[in-house]
Amino acid sequence: MTPGARIAAAIEILDVILDGASPEKALTGWGRGHRFAGSKDRAAIRDHVFSALRCRASFAWRGGAATGRGIMLGATQADGSQDAMFNGEGHAPRPRDADEIGRAIEDAPRDVRLDVPEWLLPHFDGSLGEDADAALTALQSRAGVFLRVNLRKVTREKAAEILAEDGIKTEPVANVSSALHVIENERRVAQSRAYAGGLVELQDTSSQAAIEALKVTAGLRVLDLCAGGGGKALAMAAFGADVTAHDIDPGRMVDLAPRAERAGVEIATVTTDQLASCDPFDLVLCDAPCSGSGTWRRTPAAKWALTPERLIELTTMQDDVLGSAVDLVRAGGTLAYATCSVFEVENNERVQLFIERSSSFDLVSSHLTMPHARGDGFYLCVMKRR
């Protein structure tokens, strides 16, 4: 496919997404209907689509319409490739029409310039203050690919060497002992020997740093209460902890067993009914369901789909998760509450309400990481049970 044809494909896919389909469903549907497209074509089209979703409002402003074509007109105007991409040659989209009038991004309101729904600006401002614009700007760009080295099996330096033998270039991330940043051939990671051998797992640096901050030690009895795919459970098991994983939807943990086997660790899983018979744990991690506002460059459609009503639902769920953890923490044990959100309403406000309701816990520390070049936005709070 020509570069212009890839833009045309992105336009088609974006229109399907704007009609209500999820990005993955729209991309998969397009791929099934266009089997002539090679892997490089599909990867390039995917990049176009996700870039457009990250900057949907500002690109639509530049392009003059909140449609697939308008958004991609704005995208190519932003990167200076519009004349080359919208030339009508072959399968490329036709040139810009006289009535397709875009606007200068400098004239756009703040929410449009920063690509965020207007109703969310007070949440960013109230939580991040003068750093809000920097965080929102970071969320407009593509996230990096980061690996957690399984230090139980290999050193970070050796893992980097093995990845390099498969053509995957990495560099260490400062202040996170297990992290590597993939800087060449990101898409080869899943087929690499290092990945197949359990030497590395995909995991953002902010999540890795949070696990390191918990100071997990060998033999510590840990419960990952909202385990999902099990990335944090695996990271804690790599430190030698005795890890039990739970999720209210067991189907989310379907990949945990093969991932644990690959990593050379054992992780027990329990259902909600089985939790009641578990002895209290030394550490309970509540990585609660949240808006994901710190990770929206990875899931850009989520920021446009979030509603005020859904945010209230999420805070209620977070309160429920914290409440369910109370009797699972032993006396003198640790309760850690984490989200990948930067919103105060999902973070400190939930913790303060919990402490008011559960007087047996004391706040030890809390830390919010803003989205940045080498990591997602992430919140971690540590509490101690008396």
Please describe what this structure looks like:
- The protein is of the alpha/beta class and 386 residues long.
- The chain folds into three domains: 3-108, no CATH class; 145-202, Sun protein, domain 3 (Alpha-Beta Plaits, 2-Layer Sandwich), CATH 3.30.70; 206-385, Rossmann fold, CATH 3.40.50.
- It is built from 18 helices and eleven strands.
- The protein has helices at residues 3-18, 23-33, 39-54, 56-63, 68-79, 82-85, 110-113, 121-128, 132-138, 156-165, 193-196, 205-213, 231-238, 256-263, 272-275, 301-305, 308-325, 348-357, and strands at residues 145-149, 169-172, 179-184, 200-202, 221-224, 242-246, 267-270, 281-287, 329-339, 361-369, 378-385.
- It has a seven-stranded mixed β-sheet, with helices on both faces. It has a four-stranded antiparallel β-sheet with strand order 2-3-1-4.
- Helix 13 (231-238) links the parallel strand 5 (221-224) and strand 6 (242-246).
- Helix 1 (3-18) crosses helix 2 (23-33), helix 1 (3-18) crosses helix 3 and helix 4 packs across helix 5 (68-79).
- The radius of gyration is 23 Å and the shape is globular.
- It starts with a helix and ends with a strand.
- It holds the Pfam family RsmF-B_ferredox.
- This is RsmB/NOP family class I SAM-dependent RNA methyltransferase.
- Belongs to the class I-like SAM-binding methyltransferase superfamily. RsmB/NOP family.
- Residues 135-386 form the SAM-dependent MTase RsmB/NOP-type domain.
- Keywords: Methyltransferase, RNA-binding, S-adenosyl-L-methionine, Transferase.
